[in-house]
Design a protein that fits this description.
Layout: H1 2-60, H2 68-81, E1 85-92, E2 97-99, E3 103-104, H3 118-132, H4 137-149, H5 154-171, H6 174-186, E4 193-194, E5 197-198, H7 199-213, H8 217-233, H9 242-256, H10 272-295, H11 297-305, E6 314-316, E7 327-331, H12 334-337, E8 341-348, H13 350-363, E9 371-376, E10 382-385, E11 396-399, E12 408-413, H14 419-489, H15 495-527, E13 535-538, H16 539-556, E14 560-564, E15 571-574, H17 576-592, E16 599-606, E17 610-617, H18 624-629, H19 638-642, H20 651-661, E18 665-671, E19 675-683
Parallel strand pairs: 14-16
Antiparallel strand pairs: 1-2, 1-8, 2-3, 4-5, 6-7, 7-8, 9-10, 9-12, 11-12, 13-15, 16-17, 17-19, 18-19
Helix pairs in contact: 1-13, 1-14, 3-4, 4-5, 5-6, 5-7, 6-7, 7-8, 8-9, 14-15, 15-20, 16-17, 17-20
The protein binds adenosine-5'-diphosphate.
Length: about 675
C-alpha cells in the first residue's frame, strides 16, 4: 500500500516530465519547421523573381526573326543578363530548336534544290563524265574550268572550284589542288554550302588532306587547327549528323597529328580558348540533343494542339532522377508566335544558384546563432552548406516545390545535432533524476516499514515484559506470604522445618530484590539516569565476593560450580556493584537455561589489554540468529519462552550496558544443545 502510494506519484511525475520533454521536442520541431519554410519561400520567390525578369526581358525585346546568327546573339545576351538560367533555347512549332551555339532541325529548306545555270551546267555535266567514267582528269579539269567561266554566282563558283580541286588531288597534284580549295576559303563566305556542309569547312578539310599527303607536317597542323576552330565557332544545324561527323573527324585528325596530349587537352597553350569553346559547345550539343529526344514531343505537340496550354509555364523533369534542377519553358508572346516560335526553354544554372544566388539570400535571413541552412539533393546529398561545415544530420528539411523536385532546404544545428540530440540530453537527465528519486523513496519506505515492524515488536515485548514481571513478582511474594503466615501462626514446631521456611522466605526475597534491582536499573538505563561509580578495585576480589553470595543458591539448584581465578589481583577502575550485578545475571541465566548437565564455570583472566570475565554453562545453548538478538531489551528467545523459564528479557541488556559503561563489551559463544559462554571484556586502561 505504502509502495503504491509512493510509486504512483513517482510514475505520474516521470510520465509528465517525459511528456513535457516530448512536447518540447514537438515545439522545437514546429519552430524549425517555421524557419525552414520561411527560408524556402525566400529562395523560391527569388527564383520566381529571376524568372519574371527573364519573361520581361523577352517581352520587351524588339526581336525580329531575320538572321539565325542574330537570334543566337540575342539568346547569348539573354543568358549573360540572366545568370540563373543557362542553355536558353527557342522552340519552334515544328520542333526545331535553336540555342546560343547550336540548332537542331532549324534549317527546314536544305540545299537539294540547287541547280547550275544552263550553260555552265552543260560543261559541268561533261566534266563529271570525264571525271567519273573516263577518269580523264586533265579533260575534266579543262571542262570544269570552262564551266567556271560561265558561272554566275558565288555558289556556282564554289561548287565548280571544289570539283577542280578534287580532280587535281585525284591526279596526285596536291599543291595545285590545295590552291583551288584555298580560293574557296579566300571567299570567306560562311553561307555557301556544298551538299549541306559549309563550303569553307569542306575546303579546309581537303587542304588538310592535301598537306597530309604531301607530308607537309607544319602546314597540315596549321590547317587542322584552323578547321577545328571554324567548326567550333560556326557550327551548323545538328540535323543529319553532318556537323557532329565533321567535328569528330577533325578532332581525330588533331589527335593523330599529336596536337592533343594524352588527356585530350590541346598541346598549344595559345589555343586554351578553343578548349573552353569546345567544352561549352559540346555541353550545349548534348543538352539540345537530350531535350530534343526526351522532352520535346510533349510540350510542343501540346502547345500546337491545345491553345489554353499556352498560358501555362511548365517544367519538365529531366529523366526524373538526376540532381539537376528541372528544365523550364516560358511561352513566348504573340509577336514571337507569328514567326512560329512557341517557347523559350531554359535550364536552371545549378552552380550559380547554389554558389551565388542562394548564399546571397541566406545571409540576409536571420537565423538563431546555433542554426544554419543548407541545400540537399537526392538521397540527402549535400549540395550547399551555409558555413561549409561537414555536417550530415539536419534538424529539419523541407522539399522545394516541383521546380527543384528532389531538392530540400535543410536547417542544421552548427554542432550537427538533431532535435533528438537536443532534447535527448535533458531526457536522460530527467530519467536519471526520477529513477534516483524513486530509489530513494523505496529505500525510505523500506526503512520506515522496518522501523514500524521493530516498534511493534518492542511494544509487544514490553507488554510481555509487564506480564512476566508481574508474574515474577507475584510468585516470590505469595511464597513469602504463605511461609510467613505459616510461621506466624506458630503451628510449625519442628525446628528443621522452620529453618527451611525461613530459608525459602530469604531466597524468595533475594530473588525479588534481584528482579526489582534489574527493573529499576533498566529503567534508569533506558532514561539515561543510571549512574556508575568507578573506583580502583580488584576485579578478582569482586568476582569472588559475588560468587560467595550466590554460590549457595547455585549449589542448592544442584549445580556444580567451578571458579578459575588468577592468583594476583587484577586492578581496574570499576563499579563493583554493577560488575557484580552483571555477573549475577549471567549466573542466573546459566542456571535458568541449563537442563541435565548442571555445570557452571566462572573464569577471570587477563590478556594484553583487557580483563575477561566469562560464565560458561552446558545448557540448552542459543542458535546463531538468536545470538544477535538476545542483548536487545525485552528479548526472550522463543525456546526459553516455551519452556516457561521465567524472565524479564532485561538481564543481558543490563550486562551489555554495564560492560559498555566500562568501555568494554560482552560476547557470546554458543551452540544449541551444548551450552553457552558469555564473556565480559573490560579494557585495562579505559580511554
Ligand atoms: P531473561 O530474563 O529472559 O533471561 P535475558 O536478557 O537475561 O532475559 O536473556 C535473554 C534471552 O537469552 C533469554 O530469554 C534466553 O533465551 C537467552 N539466554 C540468556 N542466557 C542464556 C544461556 N546461558 N543459555 C541459553 N540461553 C540463554
Amino acid at each position: 500500500m505504502g509502495l503504491i502510494l509512493i510509486l504512483v506519484p513517482g510514475a505520474v511525475i516521470s510520465y509528465l516530465s517525459l511528456k513535457s520533454i516530448n512536447d518540447k521536442a514537438e515545439n522545437l520541431r514546429e519552430k524549425y519547421k517555421g524557419t525552414v519554410s520561411l527560408v524556402k519561400d525566400k529562395l523560391e520567390s527569388a527564383i520566381f523573381r529571376k524568372e519574371a525578369n527573364l519573361r520581361n526581358a523577352i517581352t520587351d525585346s524588339s526581336f525580329k526573326l531575320e538572321n539565325e546568327n542574330d537570334i543566337k546573339t540575342w539568346i547569348s545576351n539573354l543568358e549573360a543578363e540572366n545568370p540563373v538560367f543557362i542553355n536558353l533555347f527557342l522552340v519552334r512549332n515544328d520542333g526545331g530548336l535553336l540555342s546560343s551555339f547550336v540548332s537542331l532541325d532549324w534549317n527546314t529548306f536544305p540545299e537539294s534544290t540547287f541547280e547550275l545555270n544552263k550553260k555552265a551546267a552543260g560543261y559541268f555535266n561533261n566534266a563529271e563524265t570525264a571525271e567519273f567514267i573516263n577518269k580523264n582528269y586533265n579533260e575534266a579539269i579543262r571542262l570544269y574550268q570552262t564551266a567556271l567561266i560561265h558561272s554566275t554566282s558565288v555558289k556556282e563558283r564554289v561548287l565548280i572550284l571544289s570539283r577542280i580541286g578534287r580532280c587535281r588531288f585525284k591526279k596526285g597534284d596536291y599543291q595545285e589542288g590545295i590552291r583551288e580549295y584555298k580560293r574557296i576559303i579566300g571567299m570567306k563566305n560562311n553561307e555557301v554550302t556544298i551538299g549541306n556542309v559549309p563550303a569553307n569547312i569542306v575546303a579546309l578539310t581537303q587542304v588538310a588532306n592535301g598537306f597530309k599527303e604531301m607530308n607537309a607536317e607544319k602546314e597540315h597542323q596549321e590547317v587542322l587547327l584552323e578547321l577545328y576552330s571554324q567548326l567550333l565557332y560556326h557550327p551548323w544545324d545538328l540535323q543529319n549528323g553532318d556537323y557532329i561527323y565533321y567535328l569528330k573527324s577533325a578532332r581525330r585528325e588533331l589527335e593523330e597529328a599529336k596536337l592533343l596530349n594524352t588527356t585530350g587537352n590541346f598541346n598549344n597553350p595559345k589555343i586554351d580558348e578553343l578548349k573552353t569553346r569546345e567544352h561549352k559547345l559540346l555541353q550545349q550539343i548534348r543538352f539540345i540533343e537530350s531535350v530534343h529526344k526526351d522532352l520535346l514531343q510533349g510540350p510542343v505537340s501540346e502547345m500546337n494542339h491545345n491553345t489554353s496550354f499556352r498560358s501555362a509555364m511548365f517544367n519538365i523533369s529531366r529523366n526524373g532522377y538526376s540532381n539537376e534542377p528541372r528544365i523550364g519553358f516560358i511561352n513566348l508572346p504573340e509577336t514571337f508566335q507569328e514567326t512560329k516560335l512557341l517557347l523559350l526553354g531554359y535550364q536552371f544554372n545549378k552552380d550559380y544558384i547554389l554558389n551565388t544566388l542562394f548564399p546571397g539570400i541566406l545571409t540576409s535571413v536571420d537565423l538563431g546563432k546555433d542554426e544554419m541552412t543548407g541545400i540537399l539533393g537526392r538521397n540527402d546529398s549535400l549540395l550547399y552548406m551555409q558555413h561549409d561545415q561537414p555536417i550530415t544530420d539536419y534538424l529539419i528539411a523541407d522539399d522545394f516545390s516541383s521546380m527543384f523536385a528532389g531538392w530540400k532546404v535543410a536547417l542544421f544545428n552548427r554542432q550537427g545535432k538533431t532535435i533528438e540530440d537536443l532534447v535527448g540530453k535533458e531526457k536522460h537527465l530527467y530519467l536519471i533524476l526520477f529513477s534516483g528519486i524513486i530509489i530513494v523513496m523505496l529505500i525510505g519506505t523500506v526503512v520506515t516499514v522496518r522501523a514500524v515492524i521493530h516498534e511493534t515488536e518492542v511494544s509487544r515485548m514490553k507488554s510481555e515484559f509487564v506480564s512476566n514481571v508481574s508474574h515474577e513478582l507475584k510468585t516470590p511474594l505469595s511464597l513469602i506470604r504463605m511461609f510467613g503466615e505459616t510461621l506466624d501462626t506458630g503451628i510449625v514446631t519442628d525446628e528443621k522445618k522452620r529453618r527451611e521456611f525461613y530459608s525459602i522466605i530469604r531466597k524468595e526475597s533475594e530473588r525479588l530484590t534481584h528482579l526489582i534491582d534489574n527493573v529499576l536499573d533498566f529503567s534508569k538505563m533506558d532514561t539515561g539516569a543510571k549512574k556508575y561509580y568507578f573506583e580502583e578495585a580488584d576485579l578478582v576480589k569482586g568476582v569472588k565476593n559475588s560468587l560467595e553470595a550466590y554460590k549457595f543458591h547455585i549449589r542448592e539448584n544442584g549445580f556444580k560450580i567451578e571458579a578459575i581465578l588468577p592468583d594476583e589481583p587484577v586492578m581496574l577502575k570499576i563499579d563493583r556493584d554493577a560488575i557484580s550485578q552483571a555477573l549475577l545475571n549471567l549466573l542466573s541465566n546459566a542456571v535458568k537455561y541449563s537442563e541435565e548437565r548442571k555445570y557452571i564455570q566462572v573464569k577471570v583472566e587477563k590478556d594484553k589489554d583487557s580483563a575477561l570475565i566469562s560464565v560458561t554453562d552446558q545448557g540448552i545453548g542459543i542458535s546463531r540468529d538468536q545470538q544477535k538478538k538476545i542483548f536487545e531489551k525485552f528479548y526472550q528467545a522463543p525456546a526459553a519462552a516455551e519452556k516457561e523459564k521465567q524472565g524479564s528479557g532485561l538481564g543481558l541488556t543490563l550486562v551489555k550496558h554495564i560492560a559498555e559503561a566500562h568501555g568494554g563489551n560482552v560476547e557470546v559463544k554458543s551452540e544449541p544443545g551444548r551450552g553457552s559462554r558469555f564473556t565480559i571484556k573490560i579494557p585495562l586502561k579505559p580511554e
